[in-house]
Design brief:
elongated, alpha+beta, 3-stranded antiparallel sheet
Length: 107
């Protein structure tokens, strides 16, 4: 699980890959379609897609000669799980602060 989390964070660390994830959230796309959206070579886009695939954030399906890239929403689960710890931590701290302020007001 830890390796999966690290791979997902590595995949999301780059702004280009985050943009690719956003694009794939609205539709499946080929490498060519994605390359048209970025100022980089097809090989560079392919490298980004490989990292996203290794991170479990996309799947690639071969259809004839085309490779269709699809967002894999479940791939975000390790990231969301990791972030949820901090979400709960801040909820607990803010609740404690609220209780302390309320006690202070009632004194």
């Amino acid at each position: 699980m830890e390796n999966q989390t690290q791979n997902a964070f590595r995949a999301l660390a780059d702004p280009t890959r985050r943009n690719i994830v956003r694009l794939l959230s609205s539709q499946d796309m080929t490498i060519g379609q994605l390359t048209d959206r970025f100022d980089m070579t097809r090989a560079a886009v392919k490298k980004h897609l490989t990292i996203l695939s290794d991170g479990g954030l996309i799947t690639v399906e071969a259809r004839g000669r085309e490779r269709i890239n699809r967002l894999e929403p479940q791939g975000m689960a390790p990231v969301l799980d990791w972030l949820s710890y901090f979400d709960q931590l801040w909820d607990d701290r803010l609740n404690s602060l609220k209780e302390a302020i309320e006690r202070k007001q009632n004194d």
